[in-house]
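Q: A reviewer asked whether we had any structural model of the full assembly, not just the individual parts. We don't, so I'm hoping you can provide one. Inputs are below.
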Amino acid sequence: MPLVAKPLAKFNLSQSVILLLEHSRAEQDLYGQMLFGFGGKQLHRCQTREEAKLVLAGNQVDLIIVDAQLGPDDEDGYTFVRELRRSGAGFAFLPVVMITGHTPSSQITFARDSGVHFVVRKPVSPGVLLERILWIAQEARPIIECETYVGPDRRFQRLGPPKGIEGRRADDMDMEVGEPEGPDLHQDEIDQLLQPKRVAL
Amino acid sequence: MSEVKVHKVQYRLARQLKSGAMISTATALGVAKDRVKKIEPKVLAAIEEEFARQDAAFADLKQGEAIGLIRMYGSTNRLLGLAGGAHRLENMGKAALSLCDLLDAQNGVVPADLRPIRVHLDALRILKTDLDERDQAIVLAGLTKVRTHKAQQASD
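A: Here is a predicted structure for the entire assembly that you could use as a starting point for your response.
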């Protein structure tokens, strides 16, 4: 199931300032070429978390792309995102796309729980990277801030609270459907709602 | 229960993407692929550098030094990223993933038998060449066999 209803067919990345935090120079070049190809013009390349923090402090950044694995003498990308989200600064809630290499499911959960918007697995293709950037344009998830997590709402499928647990949100719906409020629909009316067909009048 | 704040955010990026002179996704992808193709020689050179790092890490492993596992895992992860630099490197990327799985399963312990790792290192080099697809598939199937055998040994 796609996360966005309808992907953008056209876009403009030339006004956006992008921060790329990637330890490997060769990978920086690779992702940089993709971003310039998408029309990006303002790209800050950083190799370490400290460099990235300086860029964030002195520039208005619109998108962060970060590798989960940074250099041997640096913390990882997850730590960077967690610190960013907890910074309390104006840039704390910026959209973040994380690039990961070897990805056991525990690492995906780790990335999600660090507060990133989307995770892209290596090797990164231009198509997948662009798709994730454009998804952010249609991103409707609020940022959740609590004791254990700061980041985009991880529950993007609104299935209601788990059975037997009271919802914590004003818009959480009860799992119980309740009594019908009008006459039941006939099966053909239901079919019509789900699968509209052309009719000859 | 801890306090939960819900922030409705509007990203500047979202506004920017939908305003000004726009290009189609097809055009953007075409340009991006062309630009990536132009730096292919640079990517291939970087891959060679990672091969050299892997060899150094393998020498550490031969000495029984566990740091070799960390170094090799880091280098193989970078190889995985570089595999995005050309379509023909897709299978090299798969071999890199396979090696990452193998190294990850070691849980920081240097294996007594280093042959499965050596086979992967050789396979990575072979898959970087212009080998035809049928032969590439044979190499990948060989790696799967090695990993299965290794997993079987571990469970016995």
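A: Points you may want to mention in the reply: The helical segments of chain A are 25-37, 49-58, 77-86, 105-114, 126-137, 187-194. The two ends of chain A are 35 Å apart (CA to CA).
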